[in-house]
Each structure stands twice: as structure tokens, then as C-alpha cells.
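About this split. The held-out portion is used to measure sequence recovery: a designer receives only the C-alpha cells and must propose an amino acid at every position. Recovery is the fraction of positions where the proposal matches the reference. Here is one held-out target exactly as it appears in the evaluation file.
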């Protein structure tokens, strides 16, 4: 059914989702005080949301005495969604490992507005907040999750930047010295690896082979072990290769790690997916789609096959008319009928652009008075539920999706180190700065503190150096 580590049945312990069936009664209006600067919540009578201040109030998790389930007010309306024809869609911005989203709207804390194409960076939208004016009337009247602090400005950034005056040969020499003789100087390795971009690490690898006639990766493998080895090897793989390798690893041998397939295939851009498919074929001599078909089945298989086409619409303009129609279709395919028409969900969630899906979620909550994420939780279960929710969560706020995955990788006994390594490494040059901000906002703890208490030794040092603690 759901992922290990995720509470069963649609995230009950998750900030922002009231227990099923209690959506509208939860929590009673006026019961909690909110941090200043937030508009008061719309309660049962849904008074108009004030149009100043933050979009999507929702108090930070843990801000008053909230009830156990995370205590967010009912999903449903998102005060800050622009009305059809209101705000323009997302302006062009940098490449889209970036989180979609502008104004503070639903189930996820809102990241900076930005886009997915490779255009110039943001044009701020009217209303002082990406996303423009807050509409005055939404059913539900509030956002189930904290919204974006204004300080999280446009675009996204990684924590790892290319080193200035980089010298691949000098770095290769430092690594060689660190591994020569008795013992290994791990600190020297950490200092080089954490402070170079992936592109620079590829150049160090090439320089090492040219200078010493040896394979740097093989040398590192013989010196390191366990999590530290996995982390270093991940950092030295080109990003596309690392994604392809992770997918192959997830399907190798008995059993399949479905959540790895979901995490990669449902969150990457079209270009990234197409490159992964090509790399999978050239490096492993296998067809990714065939492997997916043989390792998964049913509606989940169809969703992943749709994802690996890399054909999602990436036009940044939102068609509000289409959003209304899609919301209507999704309602009639799920909540509005007995049984579920899965292919309708697959078609819309696999083809529409992320900004378009965000508008569809806003339209859905106005129309159905409940949020699309919770409807998916009621209509689906298991891997296909997780996959569809991942797509919607990325449409709302991609960094919040990764922050949540990081949180669950370290929650409870033991640490899911592969997930921790994979997310920290794959997002380190894309949006790890925003993921850290969302993590603190959602869990009242910094990502660094959490990693430090869950890991140890050189592995901890290197992770913290990448996270930029």
C-alpha cells in the first residue's frame, strides 16, 4: 500500500491533512491564534479572505496548540489562488528542477514562483506576491499548510556552486595524496568533493586518469565503504547517469523499490527524462520502458510509462478555462461517481504542465470544496496513489515534496540512507536552498540538525558540507 515510512491511508500524520471525513470541521474557526501578519482564517461561514498580507495563511506547523493530526485547517479553498483571468501564469525562469508555484495555495508550503523552461529569470507578478491578488471568496477559506515566507524570493538555487579558480590537476593530486600510504585522509577528500560542482568533479576524474593512469572511482571504492562510499560515488556520477543508475538499481534483483521510480520519474523535466531514457539504453543496454513494464503492473505501470515519455506540456501559460474543465472531469472520474475512472486521472496528471495542474487544483477545490490531494487519497491506494500525489505535490511546491521525503528518510528507527544521499546529491545544484527553507518551515528543525543527529563520521561531515551547514 503506501510507502514504508509513510503513515498508511493518505498521510494522516502529515501537516495539512485533516483526518478524512473531518475536513470541514477541522479546526473550528477562531480557535487558534496565528502568527502576526497572517490574515485570520476563514471559518465555517467562509468570510472573504483579506487581500493583503500573506496568501494562504495557515500558521506554521506547531504554531498554537494544534490537534494531533498536524492541525491544519480544512483543505478546500486556497485563499491565494488567482481567479481565472487574474494573474498571468509563471514567468520564465531557470531550469525546472525548480518548484512550481507562486502564491501561497494549498497542501504544501509555497515556494518561490518560478518556471520550468530555460528562460530569463523571473518577472514579478502584480500584487507584490507571485500569483497576484488574493481572491475574496473561496470555499474552505484556508490553506492546509504554511505558505511561503516572502524572503524566499524568485527562482531556485543549489547549495553547491562551482569553485572559482578551479584546477582539476591540483584536485586530482590532493585526492591521490589523501589515498596514498596507510589510512585515508577523509577530510581532504570531503573538502575537495563538497566544494566542486558536478561538472568540475567530472574534470577531476579525467585529470586523475590522465596523470596516474588509474581510475579515480576504483581507487575511492577501495578506500571507502558503506554510506560514505555510496555518497562519494553518487557525487562523482554525472546527474543523468545517477538518475538512470538509481532507476536500474531500483528494479534490479528481486522486488522493486517503487518509491525510487516515483521520486525520479514523476519529478523530472521532459529534457531530464529523455536524457535518462537515452543514458539507460547506452549505459546498461536496456530499454527503460520495457523494464518498467516488466517490474510494475496495472494503473501504476501506466502512470510510469506515461512519465517516461517525457512529453508533459511545458508551456508556462495557464488556461483557466481548461483548468475548470479538467477539475470537472477529475471530479466526475472520482468523487462524483461510484468507482474511479483511473485513465482520466492518468491523462490529465501526465500531460498538463505543472502551472496548469496547480490552477486545476485551485479550480477543483473551489468546485468540490475539498482538495484534489485528499480526493486522490480516497480514490486510489498503494503505488499509484503515491505517484499521482507526487505529481500534484510537485505542481504545488517541488521543494516541499523533497523536504518531506528527506524527513521520512530520517524519521523513526534507522535511516533510509539511499534516499537521503539521492535527494541531497540530485538537488544540491538545483533547489536544495529552497528544500532547506521548506524543511525548517514544515518541521521546526533545520535539515542540517536533523542530518547531524541521524548520521555520523565522515559521512555526516560530507553530507553537512553539501547541505551547507
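Reference sequence for scoring:
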Amino acid at each position: 500500500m503506501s510507502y514504508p515510512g509513510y503513515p498508511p491511508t493518505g498521510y494522516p500524520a502529515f501537516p495539512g491533512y485533516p483526518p478524512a471525513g473531518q475536513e470541514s470541521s477541522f479546526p473550528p474557526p477562531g480557535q487558534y491564534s496565528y502568527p502576526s501578519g497572517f490574515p485570520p482564517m476563514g471559518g465555517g461561514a467562509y468570510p472573504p479572505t483579506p487581500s493583503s498580507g500573506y496568501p494562504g495563511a495557515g500558521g506554521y506547523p506547531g504554531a498554537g496548540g494544534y490537534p494531533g493530526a498536524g492541525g491544519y485547517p480544512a483543505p478546500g479553498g486556497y485563499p491565494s489562488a488567482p481567479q481565472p483571468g487574474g494573474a498571468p501564469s509563471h514567468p520564465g525562469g531557470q531550469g525546472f528542477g525548480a518548484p512550481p508555484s507562486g502564491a501561497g495555495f494549498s497542501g504544501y508550503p509555497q515556494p518561490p514562483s518560478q518556471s520550468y523552461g530555460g528562460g530569463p529569470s523571473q518577472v514579478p507578478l502584480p500584487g507584490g506576491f507571485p500569483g497576484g491578488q488574493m481572491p475574496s471568496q473561496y470555499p474552505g477559506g484556508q490553506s492546509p499548510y504554511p505558505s511561503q515566507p516572502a524572503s524566499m524570493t524568485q527562482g531556485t538555487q543549489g547549495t553547491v556552486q562551482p569553485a572559482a579558480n578551479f584546477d582539476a590537476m591540483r584536485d586530482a593530486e590532493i585526492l591521490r595524496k589523501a589515498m596514498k600510504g596507510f589510512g585515508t585522509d577523509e577530510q581532504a577528500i570531503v573538502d575537495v568533493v563538497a566544494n566542486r560542482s558536478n561538472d568540475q568533479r567530472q574534470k577531476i576524474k579525467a585529470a586523475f586518469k590522465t596523470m596516474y593512469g588509474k581510475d579515480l572511482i576504483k581507487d575511492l571504492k577501495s578506500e571507502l565503504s558503506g554510506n560514505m562510499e555510496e555518497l562519494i560515488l553518487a557525487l562523482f556520477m554525472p546527474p543523468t547517469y545517477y538518475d538512470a543508475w538509481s532507476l536500474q538499481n531500483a528494479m534490479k534483483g528481486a522486488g522493486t523499490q517503487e518509491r525510487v521510480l516515483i521520486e525520479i520519474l514523476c519529478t523530472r523535466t521532459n529534457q531530464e527524462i529523455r536524457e535518462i531514457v537515452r543514458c539507460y539504453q547506452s549505459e546498461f543496454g536496456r530499454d527503460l520502458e520495457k523494464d518498467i513494464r516488466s517490474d510494475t503492473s496495472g494503473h501504476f505501470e501506466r502512470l510510469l510509462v506515461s512519465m517516461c515519455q517525457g512529453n508533459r506540456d511545458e508551456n508556462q501559460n495557464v488556461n483557466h478555462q481548461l483548468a475548470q474543465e479538467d477539475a470537472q472531469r477529475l471530479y466526475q472520474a472520482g468523487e462524483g461517481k461510484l468507482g474511479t475512472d483511473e485513465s482520466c486521472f492518468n491523462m490529465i496528471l501526465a500531460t498538463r504542465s505543472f502551472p496548469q495542474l496547480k490552477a486545476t487544483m485551485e479550480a477543483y477545490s473551489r468546485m468540490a470544496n475539498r482538495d484534489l490531494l485528499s480526493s486522490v487519497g480516497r480514490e486510489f491506494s498503494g503505488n499509484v496513489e503515491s505517484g499521482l500525489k507526487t505529481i500534484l505535490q510537485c505542481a504545488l511546491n517541488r521543494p516541499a515534496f523533497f523536504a518531506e521525503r528527506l524527513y521520512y528518510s530520517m524519521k523513526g528507527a534507522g535511516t533510509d540512507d539511499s534516499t537521503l544521499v539521492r535527494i541531497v546529491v540530485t538537488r544540491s545544484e538545483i533547489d536544495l536552498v529552497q528544500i532547506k527553507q521548506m524543511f525548517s518551515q514544515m518541521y521546526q528543525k533545520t535539515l542540517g540538525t536533523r542530518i547531524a543527529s541521524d548520521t555520523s563520521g565522515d559521512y555526516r561531515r560530507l553530507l553537512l558540507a553539501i547541505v551547507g551547514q
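Annotator remark: The radius of gyration is 23 Å.
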